[in-house]
Every structure is written in structure tokens, then in C-alpha cells.
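Objective 1b. Sequence-to-structure analysis of Rhomboid family intramembrane serine protease.
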Amino acid sequence: MFRALTPIVKNLLLITVGMHVIASFFIPQLKNLFALYYVESRFFMPFQFVTYMFMHADFWHLISNMFGLFIFGPLLEQFMGPKKILILWMVCGIGSGVLYSGYNAYKMGNLNDRIEAFTNDPDPETFNRFVSDNRHLFNPAIYDFVDKYSRNPESTEMVSAAKRTMLDIRDRQVNVPMVGASGALFGILIAFGMLFPNTQLFLLFPPMPVKAKYLVLFYGLYTVYNIFVSNPTDNVAHFAHLSGLVIGAVLVTYWKKDRRNFY
């Protein structure tokens, strides 16, 4: 099985797995340094748009991404060539990080607007809605404060504490990192689905055959669904996955226009 590995896929696997081992067991500081932070975070560095792809949250996160590369990557590399699959992997990974940062900026803008609105016109009901919408970020003790503030809406002490609480939530959100090669992997998936749409794949869960184009379509629709549902307790960067799909589709479409240079 391992003899079927192509050079670029093999090197990507070795580098990514090696970086995970180093960051997990030898230099744990690397995970924080190489993760991708929001551009306004004090931890943000431009090189993180590249390095975040080689960090993973845990062993299973690593395995899921590398298994996809292992399964779909070699055939793509044989068909496209080593140069193009490396471009596909890197551009989808970096591009996903860039687009996700833009999406994060949009969400942070909304959060800033809510904090500014409360600062300009403090009101217990406004604060209560903020807590309710972000309840996954609070411990249960916050509801005692919400009740106390509702009973004392004119208290400057209560208003100041509410402002500090909202700003603290903002700071925590600004400093949430993103790691993983999922954006790059989704670029590989869409490329495989576009180039080998009728290839039969056998799923493990559930155990059934499915064509590549339907598998990619399912992943795309599932990703879009999760973006719109926006489960606050879901820590998966679904928008980065969607970005990888879109960027990969654009690249493959562009390359297919000139078939003389594609093969």
C-alpha cells in the first residue's frame, strides 16, 4: 500500500505528522506560535497563514486530514503531476486561512457593534441577550449577575462590570486560534470529485459504495449547512472547509481550460 505513495503526498504526510509529533512531545510552544490567530490578536504573525496547516488540535484531527490526503492524493498527483498538486494543497490551505480570517473579521465586527451599542446605551436587556447568544462562553454564575443587574439597572458598578464582561469575551474570541490542514484537504477532495467524478468509493460509515461526485457534494452541502446553523459550541472552522472547496474548484477549472498543459 505504501509503495503507491507519490513523492509530494509522501513528503506532505511526513512533514505534517513530524510537526505534530514535535509540537506534541518536544516543543509544545510551537502549536501556539504556528496556529493562525485573528489579525488583531497580539499572537498573530503573518507566517501563520502557512504554518497553521501543519498544526493539529489532537491525534484524531491529524489522522482524519492525513487519511484523506493518503487516499485521494496519490492518484491526483499521478494525474496532475507533483507541481500542480503541491500548488493545489498550498494555495487551498493558505487561501482558506485568508478567507477564514476575513469571515472572522466580519463576525468580530458584529461583536464590536454590539459592545459599542451597549456602551452607548447600557441596558440590562441588551446585556441579557448578549449573554444568551454567547452562553457557551460563560459559566453558570453569570446568570446571578444578570439577575442582579436587572434589579439594579442604574447602578454604575453593574454597568461597568457588564462592560468588562463583554470586553473580556471579545478578547477571548480574538485569541481563539485555528489549526489544521482541512482547507487544503477539501481542495484535494473537490479536485478529485471534478477529475474523477464517477469513481466508486467505498465508505466505512455507512459501509456502502458512492461515486466521488456525490461524496464531495455531500461534504459541500454539509459544510454550508453548518455555516448557516452556526452552532456556538461547534469549534470546527466550517468556513475554512468551504473556502478550500471553492478555491480548489477554481484552480481545477482554470487548469482544465488548457488541457495541453494540464496533463
